[in-house]
Amino acid sequence: MGFATPAQYVFGIKTYDEDLGQTFGRYSVKEGFYLVLPLMGPSTLRDAFGTAGDFFLSPASYIESTELAVGTSALDQINSVSFRIGDYETLKDAALDPYVAVKDAYIKIRRKQIKD
Fold it and tell me: For residue 73, which of 86, 87, 54, 91 has the smallest C-alpha distance?
């Protein structure tokens, strides 16, 4: 996502916040097993491959300076996690088994995102 979306405001083109894992799910690729990736959090096998594909589809991955590309990606990841940190703490405090609770919540959310 950039600083502005002129296609949306000027031309009325609707933008979507989707990823390659959701696209794979829409085309009936199975979830695979659940895993927790270091520094990235919960995922499924399908979403892990989607994340790798999203890397190559992101303009930030084509920045010439390696340090700048890594910094940009890290900043984006930290920003997205910062919006969800309170959700995790609330879920962890309310659950008997936090691992199972996060797994169930993640899979339900992803299935809903694919369906919508």
Answer: 54
1: in domain = no
Residue 104 belongs to some domain of the structure: yes
Give the number of domains in the chain.
Answer: 1
Q: How many CB atoms lie within 10 A of CB 102?
A: 19
Query: Using one digit for the tens of pLDDT, what is the confidence trace for 6-50?
Result: 878 888 888 778 889 999 999 999 999 999 988 778 999 999 999
What pLDDT, on a 0 to 100 scale, did the predictor assign at position 85?
77
Q: Supply the DSSP string of 4-25, one letter for each residue.
A: --HHHHHH-PPP----HHHHHH
Q: 25: domain range? A: 6-115
- Evaluate whether residue 23 is within a structural domain: yes
Radius of gyration, alpha carbons of the chain: 16
Q: What is the pTM of this model?
A: 0.74
